[in-house]
Amino acid sequence: MFMVTTIKDTVKILPRYFYKNRNEAIIDEINHKYSNKVLHNVGLCIELLDLIEVSDGIVLPCKDGSYTVKVTFKMIVFRPFIGETLIGKVSNSSEKGIKVSMGFFDDITIPASQLTPDTTFDKTQNVWIWNFNETDKLYIDKNEEIRFQVLTELFVDTGPMSKKKPFGQDPQESTKQLNESAESELVVPYSIIGTITQQGLGLTSWWE
Amino acid sequence: NNIIVLDYELYSFLQSKDIKKKGKFNKFQQGLSTIEYEVNKYLSNMPSSTQTPEQIDNVINALKPYALTMTEVFQLINLRPKALIDLTLIIEECESRFTEENLEDLLTIIKEQLPRDDDDEEDEEEDGEDGEDGEEEEEEEEEEEEEEEENNEEQEYDEMDMLVDESSYKKDAEDDIDGEAGDDD
């Protein structure tokens, strides 16, 4: 579920960090920028693994005196492949399906259509129930360990809006646009859609 | 240009780092601390937490006769299946590629090479049934699949070279700049 990818970037180290060893400062900067952040079409960055190449540094005296370097490095990324079997915990249930969390990554959804065949939603208890046979009913409870397969992944570019505003736009217009986008559903940069339709998937307690 | 990493490799990497930076809470690195903590917590509950490099080398060698794809081998090691049904999730077209006996042997290999504490309860039931049969089966398969193996081996197992660089995780990152370039290619 984890992989290592090579990234090139320019790193700027402020003078206040010059007390650090150069490589240590570079690693700290990179981790500060990338750790626990999603890179579009790459995955959730965990941590820097190793530096590969560090160019000669440049200090720009006319700006803030930062030491600028071009760095090539290896980054550990979380990105399961399609079809991979993963284990997580049920975090939330609703009519639409269930949400699963792995602790470090929460945006995993198993929609209602991808649940074990023959499951029904109980509105009073807010829980999905697998009608295993006539007498046995198995509950998909919160915080239960669940095994699922990755069906698809979805990357959404949540960068700053790139629409060019016409010169001299009314300031009230632009704040209105910002407010509208904030009210609409929170967009998640990287999410996984899972499935538990296949035999062997679902709560791990079912198959023990 | 992406190398897939075993859970175990990431776990040991995080363990080695924690030892170095113990007690140094850094507000500047909140993202890093959070994710290191969470990933470590997650992996410590998975089979990867008790694996060692030797076990992994051994299990990879033991699995070679099965000519599994790299993703299948990785999942077998990460998930450490205990039952036949778990294998159907990991191995594609399981039933057409292997017989039930082959699969039972595969489970035995995994159990032996990657032992876990909870195996003791199950061991009492299985007593030497597959012992002799298991060895014969493996020899037959080796002959049949030798040709395939030769072609696939280089592609599939190149990434395993990462394990050789185990020691580099434990050195300070500073020392590695010169040595690391091109090591993993």
Automatic annotation (TrEMBL), chain A:
RNA polymerase III subunit Rpc25 domain location: 84-207
Segments forming domain RNA polymerase Rpb7-like N-terminal: 8-61
Subcellular location(s) per record: Nucleus
What Gene Ontology molecular-function terms does this entry list? Answer: DNA-directed RNA polymerase activity
Q: Which Gene Ontology cellular-component terms appear in the entry?
A: chromatin; RNA polymerase III complex
Keyword Membrane listed: no
Pfam families xref list: RNA_pol_Rbc25, SHS2_Rpb7-N
GO BP, sorted A to Z: termination of RNA polymerase III transcription; transcription initiation at RNA polymerase III promoter; tRNA transcription by RNA polymerase III
Record keywords, A-Z: DNA-directed RNA polymerase, Nucleus, Transcription
InterPro entries named in the record: NA-bd_OB-fold, RNA_pol_III_Rbc25, RNA_pol_Rpb7-like_N_sf, Rpb7-like, Rpb7-like_N
Q: Determine the domain of life of the protein's source.
A: Eukaryota
| CDD domains linked to this entry | RNAP_III_Rpc25_N (cd04330)
Indicate yes or no for the key word Transcription. Answer: yes
The similarity comment for this entry is: Belongs to the eukaryotic RPB7/RPC8 RNA polymerase subunit family.
PANTHER family linked: DNA-DIRECTED RNA POLYMERASE II, III, DNA-DIRECTED RNA POLYMERASE III SUBUNIT RPC8
What's the protein called, per UniProt?
A: DNA-directed RNA polymerase III subunit RPC8
**Organism, per UniProt?**
Anaeromyces robustus
From TrEMBL, chain B:
According to the entry, every stretch annotated as the RNA polymerase Rpb4/RPC9 core domain falls at: 1-117
Alphabetical keyword list: DNA-directed RNA polymerase, Nucleus, Transcription
Which portions of the sequence form the region Disordered? Answer: 111-185
Any GO molecular function:
nucleotide binding
Which InterPro entries does this UniProt record tie to the protein? Answer: HRDC-like_sf (IPR010997), RNA_pol_Rpb4/RPC9_core (IPR006590), Rpb4/RPC9 (IPR005574), Rpb4/RPC9_sf (IPR038324), RPC9 (IPR038846)
Q: Coiled-coil segments, which residues?
A: none
Report the domain of life of the source organism.
Eukaryota
Gene Ontology CC terms: RNA polymerase III complex
Q: Where is the composition biased (Acidic residues)?
A: 117-164, 174-185
One GO term under biological process is: transcription initiation at RNA polymerase III promoter
One Pfam family name from the record? RNA_pol_Rpb4
Give the UniProt subcellular location, in the record's own words: Nucleus
Q: Which family does it belong to?
A: Belongs to the eukaryotic RPC9 RNA polymerase subunit family.
| Protein name in UniProt | DNA-directed RNA polymerase III subunit RPC9
Q: Which organism is it from?
A: Anaeromyces robustus
